[in-house]
Amino acid sequence: MAQQLRILQSLWAMERRRADQPEWPLQTQLAMIRDAGFDGAGVRFIDPAFATEVTDFLRGHGMIWQAQCYPATIDDLKPVLELVTRLGADHVNLQPNVRPHRIEDCIPLLDGWRRLAEESGVAVHVETHRDRMTTDLFFTLRLLECFPDLRLTADVSHYLVGREFAWPVDEVNHALIRRILDHSWGIHGRIASREQVQISLGFPQHQGWVELFMGWWEYAIRSWRERAGPDAVLTFLCELGPPPYAITGPDGAELSDRWQDALVMKDMVRALWQRIIDEEARGTARRAP
Q1: Is 31 exposed, middle or buried (0-12, 13-18, 19+ CB in 10 A)?
Q2: SUPFAM superfamilies of this UniProt entry (predicted)?
């Protein structure tokens, strides 16, 4: 069995948040995700009834999911792992919902979460995200010095906008991002600019940022393929969030169609994966005696 890419859609990203339009019912959202060709969904594992309904649908259609959680203490992770043990998940995506000023204060939390994950046999990835333990790029790199085997979920949109990298991004900042990507075992897909955490893929003025992120994701995929096992699964979660992540006009309406952007992103990343596979295959063929 070869390494695989699985592209998921965030259920949070299915929220519309329009005063003049109703939200899509949950079963409609799930059917949209299935019919659009996604491999699964990102699911909040906070409400057991919600998680059960969603995973029943996904399992029934041969799809997968990642379990998302936001623990502030070590024990906060226990019910999530218990729910995953019952319902399953490709992995747990953990946003560490604490904001220590010192690395020393992070170590007991990461040690505790990693111990619980090992005891339960559930893979846990720590997400890079603003307003979390991993909010700052430099701070997170220091965490990696303490935990060289820490498995991250890379959402580097937060670091681009958080550090407000100058354009064009210089080699120093590219190298810092690559250090994050070299420790990443999953990817969350959102395209940012240096001022905005989420921009539309389709606007002409955004194409430089689209190319930047596609380059980072290509590096992440190639790095993961070198580190992961021969039958491992890489998940890429399309996570184009609702307002205020999505930019709106004076009437409160979004300036672009997030759902269509998610479909475009899915196809772009699948094509990127296939190009990498094809290039590696040609390289192997050239090296063969």
Answers
A1: middle
A2: Xylose isomerase-like
Summarised one tens digit per residue, pLDDT across range 195-238 is: 999 999 999 999 999 999 999 999 999 999 999 999 999 999 99
Alpha carbon distance 223, 217 (integer Å): 10
Percentage of the chain exceeding pLDDT 90: 94
Supply the pLDDT for residue 206: 96
Helices (H) and strands (E) in the chain, counts: 9, 8
In DSSP notation, 130-193 reads TTSTT-SHHHHHHHHHH-TTPPEEE-THHHHHHHT--SSPPHHHHHHHHHHHTTEEEEEE----
Contact assessment for residue 151 and residue 126, using Cβ atoms and an 8 Å cutoff: yes
CATH 3.40.30.10 fits 4-287, yes or no: no
First to last CA, the chain: 24
Q: Say what the pTM is.
A: 0.96
